[in-house]
Amino acid sequence: MKQSIHVMAISPLHIFNRLVPKHPASHQVAKGISFEPASRLKLDLYAPKGPVTLPSILFLYGGSWNDGERGNYRFAGRALASLGALVAVADYRLQPEAEYPVFLEDCTAAYGWLAENAEAHGGSKRLVLAGHSAGAYNAAMVAMDRRYLQHHGLREQLAGVVGLCGPYDFFPFDGEISMRTFGAVPDPESTQPINHVSAGLPPFWLGAGLDDPLVSPQNSRTLASALRALDIDVTHREYEGMAHAEPLLALSWPLNRWRPVLADIGKFLKSLDSGHSAPKNTQKAA
């Protein structure tokens, strides 16, 4: 079932990122690493101050595929790193400079860099794709569409996927964002993550705010159901009182002490590291 998407930019996120206290259990270990010749294609690395115990994470930000900058997501990189993972926060080319599927190719290139270089930076060679909003779409597509990881021989290192408030099933297009981004694609149904669900995918963690007016939580429900139908492990969480930005902002320190999003993701990541999948359930969190 198709779900509409609306404007997904998080603004003024740069102010939040600047004001929120830095997580004391992690730090930035590298900045502005180029992973492709295009000048914009750089990433920053974050690591725990303690030992690395989890798969490395590539975090992809949202912003309606036309807005965003990796430096505004330091809080997310440090929060995820505090769980015990090496984290890369990567830029990708945006509209109007780049059209579909260029931004997915850029995300694949970032994944490839991390797959090759994570161990040299103290991380695990096992990887997790993670993202919020449009970034969650990117993560799901790179993981599931065979043109990306599988085509480049990178699928085996993928341990899991984490999607926050992602649009996964929104065709036919009826909004400005979806029409601008995907309206000219000759095979529009191929742009939908829901149409790339196949056997053999790694475990997924899908989270959404129940009060999200921009990306309906039905997107996550639909994808979770399709994955479960093929016996793919899924952890699906829904958060009461949260809209579109709150699940992302709840990762930050000290906000994560009041909202369980970071802890929930941490439990999922630990299940991957131990070789056991997270429970197949849907839970509502206050």
Automatic annotation (TrEMBL):
Record bears the keyword Hydrolase: yes
Domain of life assignment: Bacteria
InterPro entries linked: AB_hydrolase_fold, BD-FAE-like_dom, GDXG_lipolytic_enzyme
Ranges for domain BD-FAE-like: 43-227
Pfam families: BD-FAE (PF20434)
Gene Ontology terms, MF aspect: hydrolase activity
Keyword vocabulary terms for this entry: Hydrolase
The keyword Phosphoprotein is annotated on this UniProt entry: no
Coiled coil: none
Name the UniProt record assigns to this protein: Carboxylesterase
Source organism of the structure: Devosia pacifica
Phylogenetic lineage: Bacteria, Pseudomonadati, Pseudomonadota, Alphaproteobacteria, Hyphomicrobiales
